[in-house]
């Protein structure tokens, strides 16, 4: 029954909400160069994806964060729903680091660039360091938090966790 619900309900609604909100995000980027509107639309997208997928998310400890603070958020990435879950639960404006290849995908890449997210070139330590430096500048100058996946990519449950990269610590310092 859940497979049928997924095929007939969840998947079409995920595609529809992604196309509609992605288009609105790109249009909003023509007016709002700060990325704030795009972030709000991305948060709405995350909430919709979780709702139509019948996924509930519970977060603990968020009340301990200073609402006026900026943060380096660090999260594991074991599922395609991690980003929607983070968008829904973190009530802070943030930009995330994404692998450089995602910025080359039509539509998605346009949204990522115009919303102010940061590409990470994992081909060399020097290129990665440059991305991390840009992230540190965003926090310092624009007072916007950032989100990193320290393992560098999505990790399956069978793989367990990978060795963490040091980028989050570099940015925090």
Overview of the molecule:
It contains six helices and four strands, in the order ααβαβαβαβα. The chain has helices at residues 2-29, 36-52, 82-89, 108-115, 125-142, 167-172; strands spanning 72-74, 94-99, 118-120, 145-148. The protein has one domain (2-172). Strand 2, helix 4 (108-115) and strand 3 (118-120) form a beta-alpha-beta unit. The mean pLDDT is 84. The longest helix is centred in the N-terminal third of the chain and has 28 residues, at 2-29. The protein has a four-stranded parallel β-sheet, sandwiched between helices. Helix 1 crosses helix 4 and helix 2 (36-52) crosses helix 3 (82-89). It is α/β, with parallel strands linked by helices.
Structure summary:
With 173 residues, this protein is α/β, with parallel strands linked by helices. The chain has helices at residues 2-29, 36-52, 82-89, 108-115, 125-142, 167-172, and strands spanning 72-74, 94-99, 118-120, 145-148. Helix 1 runs antiparallel to helix 2, helix 1 crosses helix 4 and helix 2 crosses helix 3 (82-89).
């Amino acid at each position: 029954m859940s497979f049928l619900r997924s095929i007939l309900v969840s998947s079409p609604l995920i595609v529809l909400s992604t196309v509609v909100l992605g288009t609105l995000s790109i249009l909003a980027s023509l007016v709002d160069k700060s990325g704030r509107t795009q972030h709000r639309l991305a948060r709405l997208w995350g909430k919709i994806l979780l709702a139509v997928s019948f996924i509930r998310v519970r977060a603990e400890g968020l009340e301990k964060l200073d609402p006026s603070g900026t943060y380096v958020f660090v999260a594991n990435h074991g599922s395609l729903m991690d980003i929607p879950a983070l968008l829904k639960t973190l009530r802070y404006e943030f930009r995330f680091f994404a692998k450089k290849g995602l910025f080359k995908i039509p539509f998605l890449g346009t949204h990522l660039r115009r919303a102010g997210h940061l590409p990470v070139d994992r081909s060399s330590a020097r290129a990665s360091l440059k991305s991390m430096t840009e992230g540190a500048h965003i926090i310092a100058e624009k007072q916007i938090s950032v989100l990193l996946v320290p393992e560098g990519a999505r990790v399956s449950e069978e793989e367990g966790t990978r060795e963490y990269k040091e980028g989050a610590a570099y940015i925090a310092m």
